[in-house]
Amino acid sequence: MINIGVIGCGKIAQVRHLPEYASHPSVRISGVCDAEKGRAVEVAERYHTKAYASYEDMLTDENVDAVSICTANHSHCEITLKALEAGKHVLCEKPMAVTYAECKEMVETAKRTGRFLMIGHNQRLAKAHIKAKELVEKGEIGRIITFKSTFGHSGPENWAVDKNNIWFFNKSAASFGAMADLGVHKTDLIQFLLSDRIKEVLAVTGTLDKKDNQGNAIGVDDNAICIYKLESGIIGNINVSWSYYGEEDNSTILYGTKGCMRIYDNPDYSIVIEKGNGQKTLYAIDKIQTNDRQDNSGVIDCWVSCLENKIPPEISGEEAFYTMKAVFAALESARTGHIISVDGLEV
Ligand SMILES: NC(=O)c1ccc[n+]([C@@H]2O[C@H](COP(=O)([O-])OP(=O)(O)OC[C@H]3O[C@@H](n4cnc5c(N)ncnc54)[C@H](O)[C@@H]3O)[C@@H](O)[C@H]2O)c1
């Protein structure tokens, strides 16, 4: 049995981490904690476990093998470092952390303490994305030339556990807006699908629609468009938005020398391949998770398998750091109006 503690009992803990741990035969949920004591107690009762007084209290429990960190972005680094130092393996939600230096320290601390650090980049684990990568590698649409990847929904206020206090809109708690909240998923996904790394970025971000409780524009971006140039020379763009007030868009389209691959772009088929000669191949694999429809993400199965088999996670801190560097480069590009080289990013 792997003994797990869950830090933060908000939305992602309630719709993903806790139910997926609870249904895993090799896991015992040792306990939960939350800065809002009442929330921790309520969730603990639901999962027949204990509510620790704080995450520090949880980390002193020798029975806890590993923790999930499901708190607001600004606290990811601090809690991860303390958990690793306390000897726990850590699954931390995305975005990994809020500065380059924090991400670096998380990677170094995991290495030094010999503990696993995995980041919750669930898009890599979506079944159609796994299949799409396989098809790309087989050369199904030839050499990839360009791509479009989109992640847009109506905003975190329609997701949040506490609808009167949307920390996602508060710069000091979230640090980032839509670019890092949603863009981090697509930035990671593109590197995964194409087995490539982002080399240069040109991005524009804007706060176009969201208002805080006082009616002022929020302190972070709610829309972003970025152009990525990959090491191999592929160029493509990522569009992210918290103001797509219709259906959520979570699609990725890859264009190759032999045709195009549409992933999660069709309500009935998770992958559609269109060849230059008019031939179409349809794959009905699964439906992408949306804010309203959460099914097994695969994140907890993957994490527990690493812990059980003592195999370091592929979606490690080191791997996520590549994604975060591209996100930091995009934000720097939006700030300066210049193309930013990911390697040349100032730390
Ligand atoms: N992988 C994904 O698809 C995905 C989706 C949504 C959210 N997330 C990420 O998950 C994290 C949490 O987001 P959420 O939507 O669940 O937010 P949320 O506000 O619903 O939940 C956060 C919880 O953490 C608690 N908390 C804050 N500081 C704490 C501390 N120091 N100790 C204990 N508890 C603390 C809060 O009281 C709250 O209950 C964010 O980083 C977010 O980006 C990931």
Tell me the helix content. Answer: 25-40%
Number of DSSP helical runs: 11
**First-to-last CA distance:** 41 Å
CATH class category name of the largest domain: Alpha Beta
Largest sheet: 9 strands, mixed
Question: Strand sequence of the main sheet, in spatial order?
Answer: 14-13-12-11-7-10-9-8-15
Write the element-wise H/E pattern from the N-terminal end onward: EHEHEHEHEHEHEHHHEEEEEEEHHE
Number of strands: 15
* Percent of residues in β-strands: 15-25%
CATH T-level topology of the largest domain: Dihydrodipicolinate Reductase, domain 2
The low-confidence parts are: none
Sum up the structure in keywords.
single chain, 347 residues, alpha/beta, Rossmann fold, Dihydrodipicolinate Reductase, domain 2, 2 domains, nine-stranded mixed beta sheet, six-stranded parallel beta sheet, globular, binds nicotinamide-adenine-dinucleotide
Set out the fold topology.
Layout: E1 2-7, H1 11-22, E2 27-33, H2 37-46, E3 50-51, H3 55-59, E4 66-69, H4 76-85, E5 89-92, H5 100-113, E6 117-119, H6 127-137, E7 144-152, H7 171-174, H8 178-181, H9 183-194, E8 198-206, E9 223-230, E10 235-241, E11 252-256, E12 259-263, E13 271-275, E14 280-283, H10 299-309, H11 317-336, E15 340-341
Parallel strand pairs: 1-2, 1-4, 2-3, 4-5, 5-6, 7-10
Antiparallel strand pairs: 7-11, 8-9, 8-15, 9-10, 11-12, 12-13, 13-14
Helix pairs in contact: 4-5, 5-11, 6-9, 9-11
Bound molecules: nicotinamide-adenine-dinucleotide.
